[in-house]
Amino acid sequence: MSRVICLLLFLGQPAAFAGADTDLSAKDLEAMQGDWAVIEYVADGVKSEDDNAQSLFRTIKGGHYTVFLFDKPLASGTIKLDATRKPKTIDSITDKMPGKPFLGIYEIDGNRIKVCYAPPGKDRPTELVSKKGSEHTFMIWEREKK
Q: In whole angstroms, what is the distance from residue 77 CA to residue 42 CA?
């Protein structure tokens, strides 16, 4: 009988941990809800001028996002987070290219989110930086003050 209990406890462990994993990702997704503005944008190692970068905005509702150039929608799609990985991972699937996710990593620090993406078909970045020749895009988003 004790073997059965031990086996059941052992088999139940992954489910318990999976719930905790889901909770971590859900907590991060909840923290991402709302309106955000870019404060830094670096593509393939080249930093955009502040005026250009700061014209980009993003709204996240649930797992759906919309990116705007000022008030004009540019792109939309869904995001999927895995807060249990090191670094934390984000997959962005645009509505226009549903089979080609942008694989990225992220870090949340209060009202700032740092994100680094690789283009579709490329390996996920391993650090929050965009170096020349990497094709990575690094952004810092700051929560809009209302």
A: 21
Residue with tokens 């209990």: 5
135 touches 122 (CB < 8 A) = yes
Q: What is the chain's length?
A: 146
Rounded Cα distance between 123 and 101, Å, is 11
Mean pLDDT across the stretch 50-78?
94
Residue 104: count of CB within 10 angstroms of its CB:
23
Q: What is the number of alpha carbons within 13 Å of residue 2 lying toward its C-beta? A: 0
Tokens representing residue 12 in the block:
């139940």
Can you give the pTM of this predicted structure? Answer: 0.83
Comparing CA positions, the residue from 136, 133, 106 lying closest to residue 119 is 136
Distances (CA, A) of 39 to 45, 51, 57, 92: 16, 9, 10, 20
Q: Which residues of 50-84 are buried (b: 16+ CB within 10 A; e: fewer)?
A: eeebeebbbbbeeeebebbeeeeeeeebebebbbe
